[in-house]
Design brief:
Blueprint lengths: L2 E17 L8 E21 L5 E5 L2 E3 L5 H10 L6 E9 L9 H17 L3 H14 L6 H7 L2 E6 L7 E5 L4 E9 L3 H5 L4 H17 L3 H14 L5 H11 L7 E2 L4 E8 L3 H11 L4 E3 L7 E6 L3
Parallel strand pairs: 3-5
Antiparallel strand pairs: 1-2, 1-12, 2-5, 2-6, 3-4, 6-7, 8-10, 8-11, 9-10
Helix pairs in contact: 1-2, 1-3, 2-3, 3-4, 6-7
Catalytic activity: (R)-pantoate + ATP = (R)-4-phosphopantoate + ADP + H(+)
Keywords: ATP-binding, Coenzyme A biosynthesis, Kinase, Nucleotide-binding, Transferase
GO molecular function: ATP binding; kinase activity
Length: about 300
């Protein structure tokens, strides 16, 4: 049995402008964000020859089709029509689901890449399938194209893979503090009244970032966006202000989750860790992931 593994970086959206079109490949988002060196690992095993089903697990727990709609949608589109056999897809997430770290897109893209590797499809075919699944089922709009690109990215033209235009801010010397505090439904926000405020603030932030494309400016704009739209408020805002006291750059809110993030210099790490202990908060200190998702054989052979 051949096991295939893909790694897709977790992705934090700093600010965004949703773009919804009838064609999912023209839908997406403008904005900016950061890819992390923690994320989603997807493993695929294929047993041919007898009538079987698709089985999906999240962090080792079997999930029903309705809990993994996006993964099933991707798998059914990338499997050859004449395929007969058993498919097992294991997804392992470094961050909790629904907290804004693009687990949904990570699972979709990881699944698509492993199946593409196994059944002779291309990277672009896999990525487009994952993006379409995300858009159709309310997962996310810009995560797949961001994860495909890596680094600190700016999405300057919306759309799916092959349509979107993505650029990178080049920087070093920072780690990323990620604090997952709670769930927020992307769909609820995108269908709510706040969407017009998000659109206006996101367009303004991107315009300013393109004039001065630095990581420092991105963090300042992310915070302005998060507070200006009213998404960052209450307890989450209080925690953000606590974090700001030990950092040179403002922290901000992960779009869309009840989570916070910040860029941390090496000389700030010690104080950040001490603060996290004091506040008793769950956190990860990650590197920035520069590069594409990876896929290949894990163990065994044909």
């Amino acid at each position: 049995m051949m096991l295939i593994r893909a790694f897709v970086p977790a992705h934090i959206t700093a600010f965004f402008v949703p773009v919804i079109e009838e064609d999912p490949l023209k839908s997406g988002s403008l904005g900016a964000g950061i890819n992390l060196d923690k994320g989603t690992n997807v493993f695929l095993s294929v047993e041919e020859g007898h009538e079987g089903n698709i089985h999906v697990t999240f962090n080792g727990e079997p999930v029903k089709r309705e809990e993994a709609v996006i993964t099933y949608w991707v798998a059914e589109r990338l499997l050859p029509q004449d395929f007969i056999g058993e498919i097992e897809i294991w997804q392992y997430f470094d961050f909790p689901n629904g907290h804004g770290f693009a687990n949904s897109a990570g699972g979709a893209l990881g699944t698509a890449l492993t199946l593409a590797y196994r059944f002779g499809r291309t990277l672009l075919q896999a990525a487009r399938t994952a993006h379409e699944a995300e858009v159709r089922h309310g997962g996310g709009l810009g995560d797949v194209v961001a994860q495909l690109h890596g680094g600190i990215e700016m999405r300057v033209k919306a759309g799916g893979p092959g349509v979107a235009v993505v650029d990178n801010i080049l920087v070093e010397g920072y780690r990323v503090l990620a604090i997952p505090l709670g769930r927020m439904g992307t769909k609820e926000v995108l269908e709510g009244d706040v969407i017009e405020a998000i659109r206006r603030a996101g367009e303004e932030a991107l315009e300013k970032l393109l004039r001065e494309p630095t990581a420092e400016n991105m963090m300042r704009l992310a915070r302005e966006f998060a507070e200006g739209t009213g998404l960052l408020e209450g307890e989450l805002l209080e925690v953000a202000r606590e974090i700001d006291r030990v950092l040179s750059l403002p922290s901000s809110m992960v779009m869309l989750g009840k989570s916070l993030f910040a860029l941390v210099r090496e000389n700030e790490v010690k104080n950040v860790k001490a603060l996290m202990m004091d506040l008793n908060l769950p956190y990860e200190l990650c590197g920035i992931y520069w590069g594409r998702p990876v896929v290949g054989r894990w163990i065994g052979g044909e």
